[in-house]
Amino acid sequence: EKHMVVGIKLARFGALRRPFYRIVVGNKRGKRDGKFLERLGTYDPLPTKDNVKIISLNFERTKYWLSVGAQPTDTVASLLAKAGIVPAVPKRQQQRPPKAAEAGQSASSA
Predict the structure, then answer these.
(1) DSSP string for residues in 8-50
(2) What b-and-e string marks burial along 52-87, b requiring 16 or more CB atoms within 10 Å of the CB?
(3) Residue 24 CB neighbour total at 10 angstroms
């Protein structure tokens, strides 16, 4: 018996270099623009003349899907945090290994 992992993700629509996204609930392992269970809203990442990015969202259905265990992607989680549905998640700190030159300088100066 296979279980579907349900996620809230962005499905891309729009034209070339004019992205427009639908916020959908679907199989987390499925294709980005593939089948989905329900459409929750839309996200237009291109700023308007007032420099505003538009998000429309069905709050009740989004809260329902989160309550039954749907996992939002990182991007959707940040959008939901801006909408006030989920608490803001701090951005992950990228930890890069020190460069070889920096490692050599610190070893010689010690």
Answers:
(1) EEEEEEEETTEEEEEEEEEETTS-TTS--SEEEEEEE-S--TT
(2) eeebebeeeebeebbeeebebeeebbebbeeeeebe
(3) 23
Distance CA 13, CA 20 (A): 5
Question: What would the pLDDT profile of 71-104 be if each residue is shown by its tens digit?
Answer: 999 999 999 998 888 887 776 655 666 666 555 5
Residue 97 has a pLDDT of 63
**Residues 24 and 32: beta-carbon distance below 8 Å:** no
**Separation between Cα atoms, residue 96 and residue 46, nearest integer Å:** 31
CA 57-61-63 angle, 5° bins: 95
